[in-house]
Amino acid sequence: MRERTHESGEMYLKVIERLTRGKSTVQPIEIAEELGYVKSSVSRAIKLLRGKGLITVNETNGVSLTPSGRRRAEQLRHKYEVLRSLFVSIGAEERMAEEAACKIEHCVTDELCGLIALYTPEFQERREKPVPNTNESEEMYLETMLRLEESGQESDLTNIAREMKVTKPAIIKARQKLCDLGFARHDTHNIYLTPLGREIAERVYEKHKLFTRLLRRMGVSWESAEEDACRIEHIVSDETVKAVRRYLNGKEEQANAHGDGSEEKEAFAGTVLRELSGMRHDADQSEERRRRGDKVSGLQAADGGGDQERTNSGGTAGDRNSESGREHRGIDGDT
Questions:
Q1: Which residue of 85, 133, 169, 329 has the fewest C-beta atoms within 10 A of its own C-beta?
Q2: Is residue 2 included in any domain, yes or no?
Q3: Which domain does 23 fall in, by range?
């Protein structure tokens, strides 16, 4: 469960996010002027936010949001926009709607905000608008930026180049295209996801995690499952994604009904081992039958020779000669 940020702290995050849209950092004096607070209050707030891992402060005292701080600020801005739109839709003046949204945004949960958005005309139009088509390369860049954020790393040229194993000039070219499409924005150092870019990245990353789970359940190694999921996530249809999610959720519900799921995993592994063991057993049985068949054929051939000797020599002596003949033929055959 994420740590709750006080209303005052959220206001700081919101202001820092707005002031750093065109640059990488903002000075404390700029924050103080924007909020109308004294510098000592801003210094205390910066110390608290830094301790929570929501902002960083560089050697020149420049303040910037961490990936988690930026996500928190963007969530807050989204709540504000939903509430403002709701108040305007029911007849409130723009200024009144903005003031009310600014006060209420701090106490509205994400779940309630989602429900409000369902009945807000502006967000209904956004939801009904289809997500733009994207190619594999664009999706890979957006997903990489999201994964860097979630791991607490900056989505700068160096980190993206390392993760995607591409050159920095290639990233700069892709960055411009992503910005032109409205999927990202950037400053001197980092590239940031826009709400639309984040929506696409989260959708792709969800597919990646889903198919990694599926392949792992089938017994595929982690490395192969990750690599194959990376390929599948860009071509699989929404219908297939929904079907796989239902299948996996159903399996997990069955496992939860009988415990923590470890029994099911052991049973699955046991089933695989039994199947492999059965295949090996069948192969051994088949080989044994083949060997017995060869031996019987050899004995039948030997009996045929003995009959011939009994015909020539007759009686018990013929039987002895037949046994002797079988022995010799067996040795000759081996030789």
A1: 133
A2: no
A3: 7-65
Residue-wise pLDDT tens digits, 49-64: 999 889 999 989 899 8
Asked if residues 193 and 229 have their Cβ atoms less than 8 Å apart, the reply is no
CATH value at residue 48: 1.10.10.10
The structural domain count of the chain equals 4
pLDDT at 326 over 70: no
The amino acid that residue 141 corresponds to is Y
Q: Mapping DSSP to helix (H, G, I), strand (E, B) and coil, where does residue 96 land? A: helix
On whether both 137 and 253 belong to a single domain, the answer is yes
Task: Say if residue 271 is in the same domain as residue 232.
Answer: no
Structure tokens at 134: 């994207």
The answer to whether residues 122 and 147 belong to one domain is no
Answering whether pTM is above 0.85, one says no
Q: Collect contacts of 82-85 with beta carbons under 8 A, ≥24 apart.
A: 82/113, 82/116, 82/117, 82/120, 82/123, 83/108, 83/113, 83/116, 85/120, 85/121, 85/122, 85/123
Q: Please say whether the beta carbons of 306 and 321 come within 8 A.
A: yes
